[in-house]
Amino acid sequence: MKIGTLARKAELPTKTIRYYESIGLIANAARTDNGYRDYSENDVATLRFVSRSRRLGFSIKQVAELLALWNDRERSSAKVKSLATDHIREVEAKIAELESLRSTLLDLTERCHGDDRPDCPILDNLANPE
What we know:
The protein is mainly alpha-helical and 130 residues long.
């Protein structure tokens, strides 16, 4: 199948598919005699796997590791679980960072009068963090 069909089936832009090929995340497609990329249903499944992994926040490097494990029928599920557990810790750290940002923003907006006066704790904090 051509890249446009693959893109529709995998629900990804063709540009993303080409990017994944260029960085080696997915194998380069076979080429037809006239030079068009020729993809298979296996490529659809692989791209769906990659897409779902990315939506769950896994990095490109982590997705490559997950793909290798997915394709290795001799794999240990302990390796997969370890990768996911490490990612959970990363997600929790991001959540903590976002909660801290939210708390700071809430505090700043509560201290700002939001009226016609020029003084503003939000701008003051941005200029000179405490």
